Amino acid sequence: MNVSSAAASISAMSLANVQAQAALSVLRKTLDLQQANAAQLLATLPTPASAPSGSLGAIVDTYV
């Protein structure tokens, strides 16, 4: 292996490493943005109504 091919190989590996780091950085930023959007959507949901008093609607029949 001569010096120029070794240098080219090292340069290619370095470029691949930088590209992988950039892709990982973009992925992290995308996930952070999605997490923020999901939290914002959950914050806009209305609070659920309280359970009815008495026996009406208190029992769910799951027999199939």
Automatic annotation (TrEMBL):
Pfam families registered for this protein in UniProt: YjfB_motility
InterPro entries noted in UniProt: YjfB_motility
Q: What is this protein called?
A: Motility protein
- From what organism does this protein derive? Azoarcus taiwanensis
